[in-house]
Write the C-alpha cells for this entry.
Amino acid sequence: MKRFIILAVALFTAAAVYAQPRAIGARFGNGFEFSYQHFVRNADFIEFDLGAEFPLQQINDAALNFSATVIYDFVFAQPHWTSKGTWQWYAGPGATVGVQASDGDGSFLIGTGGNIGLSYTFWFPLELSIDNRIMLGFNSRANYHFYLGGHLIPTLSVRYRF
C-alpha cells in the first residue's frame, strides 16, 4: 500500500509539472544567458538563467562572470493593449551564484536581488520581454568585497513557449 501511495503521488506530481506551460530561449543585454521559464501558478513563473555577464565596472580588468540565476516572478498586471497576444508586467526576487575570471585570478560570487519587466507573448509560441535585474552580494576576491550585478541595463529576452 505504501508503494502505491508513493507511486500515485509521483505520477500526480509529474502530470502537474508536465501540464504547466514552459518557455526556453536567451537573454541579451549585459552579457548572454540561456533562459528557461516554468509557469507554476496562474501566470507566475520561475526563471532559470545560465550565462556570462560582462560587468561595466570591471571591463578594464577584463573580468567575466559566469553565473546561474533563479528568480520567482509574480505577474502583477496583464493589460489588454492588443486583441492578439498577451502582455504581462512581472517582478520578483531571486538569487545568483557564479564565478568571476579576471586576469588569471578567479573568485566566487553569491548574491540576491530582483527583477522587473514587461513581456509580450504572440498568438504563436514566441515571447519577447524586456526586463531589468539587479543582483547584490559578495565576491570572494579581495576579502569578500561587495558585488553588483545587472546594473541598470535593460535586457531583451526571446523565448519559445511550449
User: Anything to note?
Assistant: The CA atoms of residues 74 and 112 lie 17 Å apart. The chain has a mean pLDDT of 81. The helical segments are 2-19. The first strand starts at residue 22 and ends at 28.
